[in-house]
From TrEMBL:
GO terms for cellular component: mitochondrial outer membrane. Residues 173-310 form the AAA+ ATPase domain. It comes from Tetracentron sinense. Gene3D superfamilies: 1.10.8.60, P-loop containing nucleotide triphosphate hydrolases. SMART domains: AAA. It is found in: Mitochondrion outer membrane. This is AAA+ ATPase domain-containing protein. It comes from the Eukaryota. Pfam families: AAA, AAA_lid_3. GO terms for molecular function: ATP binding; ATP hydrolysis activity. Belongs to the AAA ATPase family. The keyword Nucleotide-binding applies.
């Protein structure tokens, strides 16, 4: 009993020594980064860094978050010796944020590794985003109400309420949807929001995801994608720029490996369509629908046009984009919405970003004059 007690005491002391060494290393990394950025922290030695191991990159993240937190929460920042003095509380809040991020990223990857059966399926682990981590909902999209309603009926309801669609053949869940329309209209954003609303895992793939320099690997990767997705269900497989991956076959410059990969993709897709119980959806997006192969279009029975927003919807988008910004008194959303005819949602965002930079440019110009 005495030996066990001594062993417990020894292990406890080793653990405490390890904690102190990690804490000193963390403080040292924070000190280096603060010095590099000409910042200071009067209570740096009292900062609690338990639960994290800071590398230089992580320390830079923590200091950046802490500085932003402090500057956004105080009216008169503390300056000591021409350096901004970052308080201990802001650093600890930033460290807590880092811990939460690491905890979230660690959990899904560990469970997904257990789901992947071989090296080919393991290639898709990093592409999987659980629904609670996507961070986009339909409410965050300030337009496209008809499109959102249609997607809700086609995807969200069948995934969340499958009992409503279990009778007859006409109500069978849709296995393929195509979003098409001009660039920048929010097709990718819609896909992410749809996964959140449906409570489905989200896998985004491109041509590079399922191609390989080794002959025959592309077909194996394609087969692995669908077998891995079947164990992740409910899942939405999003194919952005679907025309580049599944364009018309038979061209003079088509490579044999590309043709075989496309055939394998469509064969696996047909396997999904024959299994109504599997909650897997292929969601394609393109601004060049006429370049798609006829066989692919047949497998995408629901095609939804995502158009440029009208003045009313442009105003909705602008209100969402500017909801967290400081606007001048009497800011006229209606006038801006009317003046941006032909703008897509992406164009409106870029316009707002350019406007947000303008005060910074004016400040720099004033400083140069002085």
């Amino acid at each position: 009993m005495k030996e066990e007690e001594l062993l417990r005491t020894f292990n406890k002391q080793v653990e405490e020594d390890r904690r102190i060494m990690i804490s000193r290393s963390n403080i040292n990394e924070l000190h280096k980064v603060l010095e590099e950025h000409e910042l200071s922290c009067m209570e740096l030695l009292q900062v609690n860094t338990d639960g994290v191991i800071l590398t230089k990159r992580k320390a830079e993240k923590v200091v950046g978050w802490a500085r932003n937190h402090y500057l956004s929460s105080c009216l008169l920042p503390s300056i000591k010796g021409e350096r901004l003095n970052v308080p201990r509380e802001s650093l600890e809040i930033a460290i807590l944020r880092l811990k939460e991020q690491e905890m979230i990223s660690r959990k899904p990857s560990q469970s997904l590794k257990n789901l992947a059966k071989d090296e080919y399926e393991s290639n898709f682990i990093s592409a999987v985003v659980p629904p609670d981590e996507i961070g986009v909902k339909f409410d965050d999209i300030g337009a496209l109400e008809d499109v959102k309603k249609t997607l809700n009926e086609l995807v969200t309801l069948p995934m969340r309420r499958p009992e409503l669609f279990s009778h007859g053949n006409l109500l069978r869940p849709c296995k393929g949807i195509l979003l098409f329309g001009p660039p920048g209209t929010g097709k990718t954003l819609l896909a992410k929001a749809l996964a959140t609303e449906a409570g489905a895992n989200f896998i985004s793939i491109t041509g590079s995801t399922i191609t390989s320099k080794w002959f025959g690997d592309a077909e194996k990767l394609t087969k692995a994608l669908f077998s891995f997705a079947s164990r992740l269900a409910p899942v939405i497989i999003f194919v952005d720029e679907v025309d580049s991956l599944l364009g018309a076959r038979g061209g003079a410059f088509e490579h044999e490996a590309t043709r075989r990969m496309r055939n394998e993709f469509m064969a696996a897709w047909d396997g999904l369509r024959s299994k109504d119980s599997q909650k897997i959806l292929i969601l394609g997006a393109t601004n060049r629908p006429f370049d798609l192969d006829d066989a692919v279009i047949r497998r995408l029975p629901r095609r939804i046009y995502v158009d440029l927003p009208d003045a009313k919807n442009r105003m909705k988008i602008l209100k969402i984009l500017l909801s967290q910004e400081i606007l001048g008194s009497g800011f006229k959303f209606e006038e801006l919405a009317d003046a941006t005819e032909g703008y897509s949602g992406s164009d409106l965002k870029n316009l707002c970003i350019a406007a947000a930079y303008r005060p910074v440019q004016e400040l720099l110009e004033e400083e140069e004059k002085v």
